[in-house]
Amino acid sequence: MERPALRLGRSTELVPRRQPPNLPTKPPGQCRAFTISCMPRKPKTVFFDVGNTLLFPNRQIIYAPLHERKLFPSQQQLHSIERRTKQEFDALQQSGKADHSFWYLFYTHLLEELGAPDEALRDQLVAATRISANWGEVRPGTREALERIGKRYRIGVISNADGKIATVLERSNIADCFLTITDSGLVGHEKPHPAIFHAALREMQASPDDSLYVGDVYSVDYLGATGIGMQATLFDVSGAYRENGLPRVESLEELEERLGVAAIQPPSGGRI
After folding, report:
1. Backbone angles phi, psi at 57, to 5 degrees
2. Coil, strand or helix: which one is 158?
């Protein structure tokens, strides 16, 4: 989503927070599940993060230096490291002590897990991950889900990127799903700074009260959006926030369900 920038990244651009420094550990009342009926206001606009939300890393390219060393991390290892790193990064970000990017922490932990701590290798992996062109893995059904959501809501993108995220989305065949695409590399501020959210709202001609943001890191995406009055939910594939009682989904299909968007299936005769 710094992860500064993927850049598709996570920022260390710290801004004052109204929220307490600790993640919630209990469900917020009776509405633990994120659904339209539990939201304070029904949104008219939905903004999406890109990295680890719509697009995922091309590991064949990014992890090439690992593969050259015969190191092949499993999906289970990667999710475990992601959960650990998000919790650590969130705590550092909120305390004002986030001296390194999300990816610096992630690859430090991953190389330790693989028994291959190496600063030069870590920096090589971080550099590759911060190139938006290296994020091109699209999950099956992504475009179809976005099209369905786009029929009910105005949808846009807010991404910490390198000024080229629109091109990456075009290459991934989903750019035209969005009415607006806001890139920190062009705006000059990264999430969680309020300026990038306000820039996106201005371009969309939307108000914070009527908008929902979907992103994958609590301290960057969730707090950044809610800090200016938007609603937010976490796109939590790895399960980093499963026990925190935060609004979260693990797929676009689940988001559709929560937003009340149902895929219309034609009957057996082929007519709707």
Report:
1. -65, 140
2. strand
